[in-house]
Design brief:
150 residues
Length: 150
């Protein structure tokens, strides 16, 4: 997805009479923004590499600004889905307390390696949300809202 986005951007700019490297540059910027959005969560063990690569692929196709806004919508969708999952399973308070503990650890420990170790130890007791789902819903929702879908 990432490489095809780069190729598409090169071709689209070239067909529009613009230098091909402008298209590649904007596509690379979008890829980096997609990486930057999810890299912090990945580095502490709260996100999988596939989710990060998916967001990078979005960036490769739609460039920087749209990637940022799609990520913002994705974060809201992810939060709503996480709350709904916890409510549906009757474990809202347990997961709410875990969320508070994780947030506290992030602000007090500040060592990604130690946070990743703690996250790995805690993973078996947590309800996990495959984040590709919120990425897909949030990105498509943002694209629809902005009239970016055909």
């Amino acid at each position: 997805m990432i490489i095809s986005g780069w190729i598409f951007s090169i071709g689209a700019y070239a067909l529009a009479g613009e230098p091909w490297y402008h298209g590649l540059g904007w596509s690379l910027l979008g890829t980096l923004i997609g990486l930057a959005c999810l890299l912090p969560a990945y580095s502490i063990g709260g996100m999988g590499a596939g989710d990060v690569k998916l967001m990078m692929g979005v960036g490769a196709w739609v460039h920087g600004e749209a990637t940022w806004y799609a990520f913002c919508v994705t974060a809201v969708v992810g939060a709503v889905l996480a709350v709904l999952m916890a409510l549906f399973r009757g474990a809202f308070m347990k997961h709410y307390l875990q969320f508070k503990m994780i947030a506290s650890e992030i602000f007090t420990i500040r060592d990604p390696e130690r946070l990743a170790t703690i996250a790995a130890e805690r993973k078996s007791s947590m309800m996990l949300l495959p984040y590709g789902i919120p990425i897909a819903i949030g990105t498509i929702g943002y694209f629809a809202w902005m009239g970016m879908l055909i």
